[in-house]
From TrEMBL:
It is an enzyme of class 1 (oxidoreductase). Its main location: cytoplasm. Sn-glycerol 3-phosphate binds at K101, G131, K186, D239, S249, R250, N251. NADPH binds at S6, W7, R27, R28, Y44, K101, A135, R250, E276. GO terms for molecular function: glycerol-3-phosphate dehydrogenase (NAD+) activity; glycerol-3-phosphate dehydrogenase (NADP+) activity; NAD binding. Belongs to the NAD-dependent glycerol-3-phosphate dehydrogenase family. Residues 1-154 form the Glycerol-3-phosphate dehydrogenase NAD-dependent N-terminal domain. Keywords: Cytoplasm, Lipid biosynthesis, Lipid metabolism, NAD, NADP, Nucleotide-binding, Oxidoreductase, Phospholipid biosynthesis, Phospholipid metabolism. NCBIfam families: PRK00094.1-2, PRK00094.1-4. Pathway: Membrane lipid metabolism; glycerophospholipid metabolism. This is Glycerol-3-phosphate dehydrogenase [NAD(P)+]. SUPFAM superfamilies: 6-phosphogluconate dehydrogenase C-terminal domain-like, NAD(P)-binding Rossmann-fold domains. It comes from Cnuibacter physcomitrellae. Residues 175-314 form the Glycerol-3-phosphate dehydrogenase NAD-dependent C-terminal domain.
């Protein structure tokens, strides 16, 4: 396991409770020492005892030696620089599993793509794990599920067989794009939910944003080749519900601070861990623009971060001055727009007939 933050340590516990021997790599020697000697990681999982099958080291080579599977859980924006050190130490032919939910700022690449490039891997050696996985709840052995995705079903199944125990179940799919983008995009919606929560809006507003947020997530992911049903599964809707509804969510917490009036710099200073949604927002909106995907919720979060939108005004997309109803689903909206255009064309034609070939406004 590369990374000994809250999620990396929790997933190490998941693996060990399923019977695997796990070596955690911790950047700080004191964290590795505490895990190794006291079976605790008090900085990230206070009060949680780790199984005897979990050990730790600050020596990356020792952590990777003889590994059968390698799990990576480090902040997305520092992933690439860490891969330079990992590449010569990685055992050949082992699967590499991303536990990260972010998009690289400089390139817009998903984490699996960064792993493939940075480690020189074929796609079928890379898997991603995602779902409604709040670390502290899982560390306390509260039952949950996740999905393991790889372009190789064999790789996904091999990882899922290891990543399961009495309180943690792993499902599989081969839609890596949908699985990863679900984990990325729900963070942005969770920031929006945190903002409206901080402002003091109630459950109707939050439920509406979550629902419309899922539409944005699906439209975006499908535009990049994902299967829409993936966004209705554990990596999409499941993760969205958990992240938007829990104070354990770092993205929800960051949004709540923004809603209470704190500026971006103050929020970053108060957060002891990385809120991936804040880092992923700009590259996601750039990717959306490339595919002409409209993401009003994410755009408004960007405006709040920039200080150009009052947090209490983050929900205008729920009100409208349109004179005609629009479809709830994107396809409905397109059909509605098409019918509206046809109706207006017919009305203009009838109007011209009534006025002898001239428009009601006179000759043109």
């Amino acid at each position: 396991m590369v990374g000994a933050g809250s999620w990396g340590t929790t997933f190490a516990k998941v693996l060990a409770d399923g019977g695997a021997e796990v070596t955690l790599w911790a950047r700080r020697p004191e964290v590795a020492h505490e895990i190794r000697e006291a079976h605790r990681n008090s900085d990230y999982l206070p009060g949680v005892n780790l199984p005897p099958l979990v050990t730790a080291t600050s020596d990356l080579g020792a952590a990777l030696a003889d590994a059968e599977q390698v799990f990576v859980s480090i902040p997305s924006q520092s992933l690439r620089e860490n891969l330079e050190a990992m590449r010569p130490l990685l055992p050949s032919a082992v699967p590499v599993v991303s536990l990260m939910k972010g998009v690289e700022k400089s390139t817009g690449l998903r984490m699996s793509e960064v792993l493939e490039i940075g480690l020189g891997l074929d796609a079928d050696r890379v898997a991603v794990a995602s779902g409604p996985n709040l670390a502290l709840e899982i560390a306390k052995e509260q039952p949950t599920a996740a999905v393991v995705s790889s372009s190789s079903l064999e790789t996904a199944e091999a990882v899922a067989m290891v990543a399961r125990n009495r309180y943690f179940r792993s499902f599989v799919n081969t839609d890596v794009i949908g699985t990863e983008f679900g984990g990325v995009l729900k963070n942005l919606v969770a920031v929006a939910i945190g903002i409206v929560d901080g402002v003091g809006y109630g459950e109707n507003t939050k439920a509406s944003i979550i629902t419309r947020g899922l539409v944005e997530m699906t439209d975006f992911a499908v535009a990049y080749g994902a299967h829409p049903e993936t966004l209705s599964g554990l990596a999409g809707l499941g993760d969205l519900i958990a992240t938007c509804g829990s104070p354990l969510s770092r993205n929800n917490t960051a949004g709540r601070l923004l809603g209470q009036g704190y500026g971006y710099a103050d929020v970053v200073a108060q957060m002891h861990q990385t809120a991936e949604g804040l880092a992923s927002l700009a590259p996601v909106l750039a990717l959306a623009a490339e595919k002409n995907v409209d993401m009003p919720i994410c755009r408004q979060v960007e405006q709040v971060l920039a200080g150009t939108l009052d947090p209490k005004d983050i929900a205008p997309h729920l009100t409208t001055d349109d004179s005609e109803p629009v479809g709830e689903r994107t396809t409905d909206a397109r059909q509605t727009q098409g019918r509206s255009r046809l109706r207006r064309t017919i009305e203009r034609a009838l109007d011209q007939l009534r006025h002898g070939g001239r428009s009601a406004g006179g000759d043109r």
